[in-house]
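Our consortium's second objective concerns turning raw sequence data into structural hypotheses that experimental partners can test. To show how far this objective has progressed, the report includes one record in full. It was chosen at random from the queue rather than selected for favorable results. The single chain below, 262 residues long, was entered without modification.
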Amino acid sequence: MEADVYMLDILYRDEVMIAIDKPSGLLVHRTALDRHETEFAVQRLRDQIGRRVWPVHRLDRGTSGVLVFALDAAAAHALAQQFAQHLPAKRYLAVVRGHPPESGEIDHPLRRIDDAIDPRGAREGAEPVAAQPAVTRYRRLAVAEMPVAIDRYPSSRYALVEAMPLTGRTHQIRRHLKHIAHPVIGDATYGKGAHNRYVAGLCGESRLLLACIHMHIRHPLSGAGIELRCGPGTAFERLAEAFGWNAAVLLPDAVHPLRGSQ
């Protein structure tokens, strides 16, 4: 999906930081895998607010939702340290294939994916890289079964999942959900084309159905907690209608615990 040119939705702004609702299809910044792209969130936000911005974390190109930037170098360092230590608590919504368990924790180490490495595997001749610890908690919010035969089954099952990554590895949620055999719909790398195309027809958008809807972060100067929230987008809304889900499931309770007693 190509990102349309329009004003970015600003969720929060003060003198040292700003957060936006990044649309699906927009890169955060230039990478080796997308050398020919000319549109980036960094550039677009800079032009929109008329000042330099510093990216302090990433969202995959296809993932929408909460994205934080610093407005000066000191704040950039402080915020980047939080993300490096996996301190911000993040909550995502994902539409997945199949019906996963009602809740669970995926503790599955992941090998690093660099910008210059194809996400489907390491470059030929490259030295093997040790897997890094990676943990994602999830809970199932809604399910659907459609009377459409895809593959060898007479019907097709889908579910809405809330995912809470406790670490921050590249493609972590996508890879973890694939690991438990419930890939995110719209994922061209880890999912299945037939299901992606069918669901795209239902929601009217060909996009990765993964959105960061809530983040708790500490202010880089005061240390005060900041809650950043946004909706998952029109594709999720249309799909909820097509699957017969109550629209309320797209905005789960903001007080749901992310890290046990922390």
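The partners drew two points from this record. The chain is about 20% helix and 25% strand. The first strand starts at residue 9 and ends at 13. Both points have been shared with the crystallography group to help prioritize constructs.
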